[in-house]
Amino acid sequence: MRGASLQSVASAADGEDRAQAAGDELPSSGVAPSSARYGAAVKDLAVAEVERRRLHNPRDRTIYREVARQFGVGEQSLRLWMKKRDAERLEAGAPAAGAEAGELMSPEQMQSELQALRRQIQKLRTENEVLKRAFVVFSSEWGGDK
Hints:
The protein has about 150 residues and is an all-alpha fold. It contains 5 helices and no strands. It is elongated.
């Protein structure tokens, strides 16, 4: 069922590409025919799929490659579309893909959280050093008893 919807979107995009190749302007696009390689429907679906996969697994580094292959678009084009979408959301004050809906923060809040996280990192590093030293002390004591 999902494949059928992708095929119909791809067919529609092919039709748009053929219209562009013939020199016909696309209605309601407002874009010059030669500047749009992919159809708006394919672009929107691909961007939505990247956002969905980002939410599911934000550390997956293969998202762009796999989605680009799935929708038959260029990987770099998809990256640029996502960059533009993220910038638009940032300007509008909406959370970026991967952020929770209630997680809007002002720059001051971000700065204070960053400082708190840096303090926490420093504390953890100090504790880690203490544990390393304790390990050395105790391991040398246990090794000397044999």
